[in-house]
Amino acid sequence: MREQRRKDAVWMFLTYAFILTMVVVMLIPLYWMIVAATLPQQEFIEFPPRLIPGTAFLDNFAALQERMNYVVTIWNSVFIAVVYTVLSLLLCSMAGFAFAKYEFRFKEPLFYAILATLVLPIQLLVIPLFLMMSQIGWTDTFRAIIIPWLANPIGIFLMRQNMRSIPDALLESARMDGASELQIFYRIALPAMRSSLAALAIILFLFQWDLFLYPLVILEDPGNYTIPVALAGLEGTQRIYYDQIMVATTLAIIPMAILFLVLQKQFVSGILAGSLKE
Amino acid sequence: MSQETESTGKQITHGEPSILDRLRFARQDVAAKLPPLRGERIAYLLVSPFFVLFGLFLAFPVVYTLYLSFFEWQSVGQGNLFWVDFGPFYVEVPRIAELQFIGLSNYVRLAGDGLFWQSMFNTTYILLIQVPLMIGLALALAVALNASFVRFKGFFRTAIALPISANIVAYSTVFLLLFNEQFGFINYMLSQVGVSPIAWLTSEFWARKTIIAAVTWRWIGYNMIILLAGLQNIPQQLYEAAEIDGASRLEKFRYVTLPQLRPVLLFVVVLSTIGTFKLFAEPYVITGGGPTNATITIVQYIYRQAFVHWNLGYASALTVVFVGLVSAISIAQIRIGGDD
Question: Which UniProt keywords apply (chain A) (predicted)?
Answer without folding.
Answer: Cell membrane, Membrane, Transmembrane, Transmembrane helix, Transport
